[in-house]
Design a protein that fits this description.
Rossmann fold, alpha/beta, globular, 13 strands, seven-stranded parallel β-sheet, six-stranded parallel β-sheet, single chain
């Protein structure tokens, strides 16, 4: 039996690791699974852990107010060795995506010569500062990982072009599709989110990335107000990340506007309902870029570059950046043209078939 420590700290990590955790736990003959939370985004991650009914075996509680990335990294490194390695003696560390939690856990595992499995490996923008620090986190994890589980052919190709051994690269699909298939049914029978009575079409907007702090976020807020002025039947739903760099700007522009329903972070079932009920989605989130196509919703990506080109290629997503005029132009095109809307509203998800977790568990069982 192999001992696997699964490290997670943020909401997307919980969503994408949950199906893998559950699959590994069904194979009791082969794996003993320990779920370790770093506490990177504890308040947001905890509700998702409850939604997926995942029990955390250990919480490192590394977050402190106004921590720098250096402090987060050093905090995880310091606690990982004593609280994870010395306690559980894992044979494998599993991480997901591009967070500081994922990179630091992989680095700490390398220092102890513990094998590393990287879920969602190979995504690239080829710009080390976009997204920051996620792009470099991903690249450095790839260099450490013994199992690079790529979600798409493009991601697998990136890894091979970088020179990573073919024997370490596995095409699996994205586990977010597994999560959607397992939990998408919670939409059925649930109530619609509240909306102003005169408004028929809802636009969902989410923003959280560091590179969009400041002027980019302000530009997006200005575009929202312009869209509201142009289309009287539209309202916005905006679950707001608790980071004060976001909340202060959102309050500045939207406080008191009854056509912008602002809330705190929402549980997984509610974000799925919001995606389902939205007419258009504006986001800088990687996960929502992957989820929205399953619901046939056009996605305008509020970034200059994306490491998820599959949606752009498939025509279900479009890069708008954070330029106010460009955002308004692209929203208007979708609002005014049924033909343009129809081109993007394709109910086809280019990110997987819902069997990624099964493939990952099969590979680990065979190799380990």
């Amino acid at each position: 039996m192999k001992k696997v420590a699964v490290l997670l700290g943020t909401r997307p990590e919980v969503i994408k690791l949950a199906p893998v955790i559950k699959e590994l736990k069904t194979r009791k003959k082969y794996f003993k699974v320990y779920v370790v939370a770093t506490g990177q985004h504890r308040e947001m991650a905890d509700s998702f852990l409850r939604c997926f009914n995942i029990k955390v075996d250990l919480n490192l509680n590394i977050m402190r107010e106004n921590q720098t990335l250096t402090e987060v990294t050093s905090g995880i490194l310091a606690k990982f060795e004593k609280e994870v390695c010395d306690r559980y003696h894992p044979n494998l560390i599993m991480v997901q995506g591009d967070t500081t939690t994922a990179f630091t856990a992989a680095l700490a595992a390398f220092y102890r010569k513990i094998s590393v499995a990287h879920i969602e490996a190979g995504l690239r923008t080829f710009d080390k500062y976009s997204p920051f620090p996620e792009e470099m986190n991903r690249r450095m994890i790839s260099c450490i990982a013994d199992f690079n589980f790529a979600p798409t052919k493009i991601a697998a190709g990136n890894l091979l072009q970088e020179g990573h051994p073919k024997k370490n690269v596995f095409l699996t699909g994205n586990t977010i599709v597994d999560a959607l298939k397992a939990y998408g049914s919670i939409l059925v029978g649930k109530g619609k989110p509240g909306k102003p009575s005169r408004c028929a079409r809802m636009i969902l907007i989410t923003m959280h990335r560091r590179e969009n702090f400041g002027a980019p976020l302000e530009n997006v807020c200005k575009s929202v107000l312009e869209i509201l002025d142009k289309y009287r039947d539209v309202f916005f739903r905006m679950p707001v990340h608790p980071n004060p760099n976001i909340k202060k700007v959102v309050d500045k522009y939207f406080l008191g506007n009854d056509r912008i329903v602002v809330s705190g972070p929402v549980p997984y079932d509610e974000i799925l309902r919001l995606i389902n009920d939205a007419y258009i989605i504006m986001t800088d989130s990687g996960g929502i870029q992957e989820e929205a196509p399953a619901f046939g919703k056009p996605v305008l990506v509020l970034r200059e570059k994306t490491e998820r080109p599959e949606g752009i290629i498939a025509g279900v997503a479009k890069l708008t950046g954070t330029n106010e005029a460009k955002i308004v132009k692209n929203v208007s095109l979708l609002m005014d043209s049924a033909a343009e809307y129809g081109k993007m509203a394709k109910s086809r998800n280019p990110y997987g078939d819902g069997k990624a977790s099964l493939r990952i568990a099969d590979i680990l069982e065979k190799v380990l």
